[in-house]
Amino acid sequence: MTHPSYPTSLGTSDAASIHLLGQDLAGDLMGKVGFGELSFWMVAGRRPTSGEVRVLEAVLVALADHGFTPTAIAARLTYLSAPDSLQGALAAGLLGGGSRFLGVTEDAGRFLADALAELDGPQPTDDAGWDTLALDLVRRTREAGRYLPGLGHPVHKVEDPRTPRLFAIADEEGLLGPHLRLYAAVGRVHEQVLDRRLPLNGAGVCGAALADLGLPIEMLRGFALLARAAGLLGQLAEERRRPVAREIYDDVEQHATFVAPDGE
Fold it and tell me: What is the pLDDT of residues 214-257, one digit of tens each?
């Protein structure tokens, strides 16, 4: 009987060795390749340059933790309920990575990539050209009744401190590509259409930066979740040292107020 073949370019092993990406895991990778670099390599199928690794690591650090966000609270409360299931608490936090938190990274990257794919002609060569393109994009998005991913932040009302830093790092590494340039232009011109100024948020700039690295748009949320997994692990470690989940639960429980269902 002929057994089916299951091709993979990732990990394989036998009794004496483990290979990953065509490399000997123990001899070629362990102690020599960082986790961020390995993550890029596994997703993109190519080894990143040192500049690409620096940008990716900056993204991972930027998205690791942002305080008591819903993802962190969900993880802590789940850990309170099931302290025997660390994996359940981590999963609870990661499952909250959607269109309002964390998922914006992919949403912004996709929004920018779609706009660039629709471009009729060469890409702009200066800020004025990018501003013209961005202004048309913002107007069309507004007219369609859709929101602009990557604009605004519930805490950072004027400027998200992660945004200019990531732009600077990408520029230093020669990786300030079309997604970041278009995103910057959206930041400059959106007020003309929206009649208010909103900051470019960290999740959005991370999506633009990852897209400029050539990573698959469909995988960008995965990198946000990869980063947040580290943050949630830190949140749970702190919950063990200085627990607050019980206080959060008690506060909600004690202040719950009954209201009659609609129609009664």
Answer: 999 999 999 999 999 999 999 999 999 999 999 999 999 999 99
Q: How far apart are CA 230 and CA 195, in angstroms?
A: 38
Mean pLDDT of 130-137: 96
Could you tell me the pLDDT band of residue 263, with boundaries at 50, 70 and 90? Answer: low
C-alpha dihedral sign at 160, 163, 164, 169: positive
The span from the CA of 60 to the CA of 53, in Å, is 10
H helix or E strand, kind and range, residue 23? strand 23-24
Backbone angles phi, psi at 76, to 5 degrees: -65, -45
Look up the CATH superfamily of 104-218. Answer: Cytochrome P450-Terp, domain 2 (1.10.230.10)
253 Cβ partners below 8 Å, 6+ apart? none
**Residues 6+ positions from 129 with CB-CB distance below 8 Å:** none
pTM of this structure? 0.92
Query: How many CB atoms are located within 10 Å of the residue 218 CB?
Result: 10
Report the C-alpha gap between 12 and 27 in whole angstroms: 15
